[in-house]
Amino acid sequence: MKNYMRINILVILGISLALLLNTGTSSIYAQNFTNQTSGQNFTQQQAQQQLDQANQQIQQAEQQKQQAQQQLQQANQTQQQANQTQQQANQTQQQANQTQQQDPKMNEKLLNYTNAAILALNDDNTEAAQTSLQQIQSALINATGKQVVIVPAPAISSSDESDDGESG
């Protein structure tokens, strides 16, 4: 019976040992499974973070694209304004060139009319002097290109004389 007890004790110890070993293995298996699962969760989290970052980068790229388009529009507007300014400058230059081309002819006419008036006054020819002065006046009016109201000289001189007569 002692042998039987020894055998039983050995069998119980063997079974206990097997159970202990089996529990340890299942615990290790459970730990490995948990590590794999958490690793997968961690990998999914990383993938989600990378996806979020990629979406943010896309949004930033779209914003930069919009800003670039706005800057391009502003540059186009500035270019159009510069073109308009250049056109205005060209028109002004053309007008100045036309004026310069007209000036020599106008100056020559005015000099001729002035000389004729001087010669007429030297000859005591008031009618010829008056005609020359009217021609000078007409040439100057045409040169300005503006509408001018001509007040006759006798109207001005008669009002001046009446003022002088009253004060004297």
Give the topology string: H per helix, E per strand. Answer: HHH
**Terminal Cα separation, in Å?**
173 Å
The percent range for strand residues is under 5%
> How many DSSP-defined strands?
0
Low-confidence stretches: none
User: Helix content range of the residues, please?
Assistant: over 70%
Shape: rod-shaped
Question: Could you tell me the mean pLDDT?
Answer: 77
Number of helices: 3
- Gyration radius, rounded: 56 Å
Structural class based on helices, strands and sheet pairing? mainly alpha
The major sheet is characterized as: none
Write structural notes for this entry:
This protein is mainly alpha-helical and 168 residues long. The protein has a domain of 39 residues. Helix content is 92%, strand content 0%. The protein contains three helices and no strands. Helix 1 runs antiparallel to helix 2. It is rod-shaped and about 180 Å long. The N and C termini lie far apart (173 Å). The mean pLDDT is 77.
